[in-house]
């Protein structure tokens, strides 16, 4: 199965071994791992989305609905258990909750895709999240002049 960076999938996460404040609900995830990496194995890297727009934080990115492209074949009906299928909506990408996902957790078909602008925004947030001390500019400290 070909999974591309920027695709949005409904992920079944309820049965994961969850601790503390980790995301424990089934929800949409954006695939952030590179497409060239995704073809090599059975895992992808994803960032969960939430529709709770007050979910603030330094590593969270709002993705407006116009930056998402819905998949026309994503069903608008209910799940087999009778619950309503969620549709794409303006969301917050919880970049600080990034996780590795087995591709069997992804519900097919995909829900949609992010625009290239939204993918670029997520990449910037991920760079900030993983910024190493070696790459950070050193703080400027005033120096005393010797007379």
Helix content: 10-25%
Radius of gyration: 18 Å
- Going by helix content, strand content and strand pairing, the class is alpha+beta
Q: Give the overall pLDDT as a whole number.
A: 83
CATH topology: SH3 type barrels
CATH class: Mainly Beta
Report the sheet-strand fraction: 15-25%
Amino- and carboxy-terminal Cα gap: 70 Å
User: In sequence order, what are the helices and strands, one letter per element?
Assistant: EEHEEEEEEH
Largest sheet: 8 strands, antiparallel
Counting DSSP E segments of at least 2 residues, the number of strands comes to 8
Instruction: Categorize the overall geometry.
Output: globular
Oligomeric form of this entry? single chain
Q: Any idea what the CATH architecture is? A: Roll
Q: Helix tally?
A: 2
In total, the number of domains comes to 1
Can you give me a brief rundown of this structure?
It contains two helices and eight strands. It is an alpha+beta fold.
Would you give an account of this structure?
By secondary structure, this protein is α+β, with helices and mostly antiparallel strands. The protein contains 2 helices and 8 strands, in the order E-E-H-E-E-E-E-E-E-H. The protein has a single domain (7-135), classed as SH3 type barrels (Roll), CATH 2.30.30.110. It has helices at 35-38, 116-129, and strands at 7-11, 27-31, 43-50, 60-63, 68-70, 91-94, 99-102, 112-114. Strands 1, 2, 3, 4, 5, 6, 7 and 8 form an 8-stranded antiparallel β-sheet that branches.
């Amino acid at each position: 199965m070909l999974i591309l960076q920027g695709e949005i999938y409904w992920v079944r996460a309820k049965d994961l071994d969850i601790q503390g404040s980790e995301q424990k609900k089934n929800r949409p995830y954006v695939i952030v791992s590179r497409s060239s990496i995704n073809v090599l194995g059975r895992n992808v890297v994803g960032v969960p989305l939430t529709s709770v727009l007050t979910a603030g934080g330094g590593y969270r990115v709002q993705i407006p609905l116009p930056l998402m492209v819905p998949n026309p074949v994503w069903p608008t009906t209910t799940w087999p258990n009778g619950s309503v299928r969620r549709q794409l909506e303006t969301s917050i990408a919880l970049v600080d909750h990034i996780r590795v996902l087995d591709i069997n957790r992804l519900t097919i078909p995909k829900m949609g895709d992010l625009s290239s602008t939204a993918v670029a925004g997520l990449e910037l947030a991920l760079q900030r999240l993983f910024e190493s001390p070696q790459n950070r500019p050193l703080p400027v400290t005033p120096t005393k002049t010797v007379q």
